[in-house]
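Entry 0007
Protein: Palmitoyltransferase
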Amino acid sequence: MAWSLYLVWGIVANYYYAVTTPPGSVLDGLAAENEGTHFQDVLMEMETFTEFPPTCKRCHLPKPERTHHCSVCKKCILKYDHHCPWIHNCVGHFNHRYFLMFLTYLTTACIYFVYMGIGPFMLMAESEENLAIWPYRMPKGLVAFSEVLACAIGLAVGGMGCWHWYLTLTAQTTLEQYNNNYIKGICKKKGDRFSNMYDFGIIGNLLDFFNIGRRGPWYTAFLPLRIPPIGNGKRFDKGGRGYVLDFGPDDEDDLV
Ligand SMILES: [Zn+2]
Ligand SMILES: [Zn+2]
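Output (structure tokens):
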């Protein structure tokens, strides 16, 4: 009973947090006075002092690293992963944790349900002719329906969960993964080794993602609480040396 309630708490709380936590936008934490002030303040937060800072072509605001414009939300989202219609929200810097944990708790609950329901499900198949030997309160049809539903949701959400665990362990967003794969291909052709500059190794990435150490002990990762991530989402620590594409004239052939 305690384990089942814990799973339900994990699913409901993380879903609620994923829906209601703003993923993070460029103007977060800045006073809404005039646009000029915003521009300067965002640049200060990004620690960008170049003459031509990266700017979003659609909302004309400075574009911090890992930020992308969401055409559904019509604004730039910090550490943008994707826009998720199921939570009617973008998955970004401030709610990625809740999105991942929602997928994890839901998949775990589905596996647990399928495991616990397999006995009644098998018995249902056996006792088709003799209704008298059905010892459960739950009607047979509902057992069959729940078992099939748990299998289907477990597979679909589990696949998505595995993908997001892979991204978390390798410190990438969905978008970055596509870009990194592309650059990896170019590196391979040149005989170079690719390294993702946000990657601090599996343990380092987990500590960062779950804000362990600075905000709370390790077990806070397993508590469905509202715990914000490290940083403001406009600037990120860089562990790897990163790989900067050299678009010099010698390399043009490689890019064709
Ligand atoms: Zn934008
Ligand atoms: Zn969006």
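Curator remark: Residues 245-256 have pLDDT under 50 and may be disordered. The first helix runs from residue 2 to 20.
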